[in-house]
Amino acid sequence: MNRNLILGGALTGFFILAAFVSFIWTPFDHTTMDIPNKLQGIGGVHLLGTDHFGRDILSMIMVGARTSIAVALVAVGIGMGIGIPLGLWAAARRGSLLDEIIMRGNDLIFAFPSLVIAILITAIFGASAVNAIIAIGIFNIPVFARITRGAALSLWEREFILAARVAGKSAMRISVEHILPNVTNLLIVQGTIQFSLGILAEAGLSYVGLGAQPPTPSWGRMLADAQTLVSIAPHMALIPGFAIILTVLGLNLMGDGLRDYLDPRLRVSRT
Question: What is the value of pTM for the model shown?
Fold first, then answer.
């Protein structure tokens, strides 16, 4: 029994379920302000209290989960959708000018953190969740390109690849039919890791005002709103903070569990 996979899946599934439920139900309208009942503590009618505008924190956490998960998921999808083909292409043309251009382009993107990319994008197009997705997605492209290329290069000298080349298959056909299926497990594990990093990045961008804009709730925005009220209403910072911690912890545990489950060598060593 893989405890990391079970615990990580349970934590991740809980917040994904909360995000889906928020589409059809929340305890209160997350945009409704109730000034007379602002800064209420945990318990009572508002289970997790209210913020400085009297909004229900539990409702905002549920909708915020939807925002964070959607941004991270789409950003990772962009990274995988562009980075994996680039990595396969670079490995198939290893040592060529094309390989060099792709890898140096990856180095150029790595030179600028996602926050810097986000500042550049929002300076041109304005702050929004969509621009946060673009910034995080761009940063994910070289991650998947490098991992795919590195894993693919180790396979290109294997006997079954040589047999496919002798059979007359093109380099790209070999990449799709033989290389990609053999690196999928590695990419799945890396995808869960990048998913957790995407949630952290979204929270960080929202915290500095570059992510989802009001009235759309975001865990990072909730932390930013709470920073001047920590001594008065600590629950405003603790609850979204714990939401971020538990989601990232769940995804990392799930990634670690998937690595053990999908790698037969690790399964054998632990039995």
Answer: 0.89
